[in-house]
Please model this.
Amino acid sequence: MRPFNSRATRPTPAERVLSVLTAAHSMTVVSDGHDPVEVHRLDGTAAMGHIHLHEPSESGGAAQPGLRIPVRLEFTDIAPTPVRDRTRARVTVTGLLSAPYSTETTESTCMEFGQAVFEDHGGRAFVTLDTLQETDPDPLATSEAAMLTHLMDDHDELVPLLLRLVHPRPERGVTRVLPLALDRYGVTLRLEYPGAHRDARLPFPKPVARLDQAGPQIHALLAAARRVSHRNQLLT
Model:
């Protein structure tokens, strides 16, 4: 796999897609001529656990071409915190199955990968299988929800402190600030106003390569926010 970009301050569309596929506990499977199937994994496993993506060339004689079923997998990335408008992104993976999808099977269903489409408030991006295979998974992807929930439940006083690092400085009238997302490159805050909101990105001093590096990077952001306070640069 290609190493992640240590100079980047936010994940690429391919990294976002990979994180969604890795962490999602539910998905919708839509195939031609069949009703949509809602797949929920309540045992802590990812929804993709029963789907194997591979290149079309790998399928060989696995099935006759006429029997392959066009299919799309739909994922919705929902913020784990109670922010306004909790849908962060949508991911759609299209391809072909050699047999109708069924939640009753105990074996993985091989899916010829077509393309992945990533959509968020910033627009739409298409991601190829080669790009996904060259992308390192985010070490925080499967822990993000628990970490953000812990921050909200046990250290909610730290969130306003992080607001001091937002540039440009927030406009007056902020009614609530909540953590929206956490990834290897930093933290995203959602600033809510009456009838509107905006997101602010706080990059880590250094992207994390392992889960145990996240804590020190968050503490580095908090230390920087406290230094801003000491220089009397608090919001007025």
Q: What stands out?
A: Residues 69 and 100 are 7 Å apart (CA to CA). Helices lie at 13-23, 129-133, 144-154, 158-162, 214-230. The chain has two domains: 13-133, 144-230. The mean pLDDT is 87.
